[in-house]
Amino acid sequence: MYSITSESAAHPDIVSLIAALDAYQSELYPAESNHLLDLTQLSTDSLIMMVIRDRQLNAVGCGAIVLNGDGTGEMKRVYIDPTHRGQQLGEKLLAALEDEALSRGCHTLRLETGIKQHAAVRLYENHGYGLREAFAPYVADPLSLFMEKALVADVRLAVL
């Protein structure tokens, strides 16, 4: 059994998971194609940070959304420890992050991921994210894919 809860980006368990993610991505991509945002530098008002814990309360996954204040957010730092993959934890984490984003007024989520992360791309596609052009602060990169998902059917309803 696993639990998904909100957590501080500075929590040592989160820092450890993100370090593992950074090491993994550094093996796949050159530095200029790694967009490694330090989430500990963001205010809690603009950040949703969640952790997945197993029965022994070990942190086995994490993910974040950076809220932009305009109804959009960016999915960041989604990672599941390799020994816990294949259990639909990514799907559950995305659902929890999206629910929290929606409750905080976010109507559209965007993300950047690498072309070599096939499982991540499949996860996002299966969860309703579609390809789009690069969005600020990114520029087009042949090693990056940019994706987006509307969390509400009609964005106008989200701002009423």
UniProtKB/TrEMBL annotation:
It comes from the Bacteria. Residues 4-152 form the N-acetyltransferase domain. The keyword Acyltransferase applies. Keywords: Acyltransferase, Transferase. One of its GO terms (molecular function) is acyltransferase activity, transferring groups other than amino-acyl groups. CDD domains: NAT_SF (cd04301). This is GCN5-related N-acetyltransferase. It comes from Enterobacter sp. (strain 638).
